[in-house]
């Protein structure tokens, strides 16, 4: 598998944030507050653009409709500092969280998402849990990719190895939610990161942690 270098910066340089998404989130006091944060830059969501290879079809087409997730914008911390190699114990998953893990004051990425209906509903006007998992896989994975890009030298493709999600409250639709993501540790080909989803009242709807792996030359994890 061919290694890619600087592909994320190239993507950001050649794509812009959809104006309708900026208009939607700018009209909402809750999400507009994030758009105004001086320590972040607003960038297009990587997975919302269909690639020539067919990559990212799910987020760019399948759930990019008026009845699913019509708007999605990423805020990227301007001063992202990639972590050095971590102690192996840092990569072990946490078990049985009784309390929500507190995010850093400035998480690496903040993703604004508009959940429409009924296309993402499980129960009426409540998002399907599988969609929540997919959102975490996409948003936390993009956060890892940001650090992956900043690491020295060309890097291989990343794949999700594990993803654990805790559901804290029902996520109503339609709704605007915010997903905060940050890297927790890395060692060799392994990258561990976390994320949490909140609503306009600051209520944590769900949280997740996962491990991402660089592929081997053979393409295996």
UniProtKB/TrEMBL annotation:
Q: Which residues form the Thioesterase domain?
A: 126-202
CDD domains according to UniProt: PaaI_thioesterase
By what name is this protein known? Thioesterase domain-containing protein
Q: Supply the source organism for this entry.
A: Exophiala oligosperma
Q: Which Pfam families match?
A: 4HBT
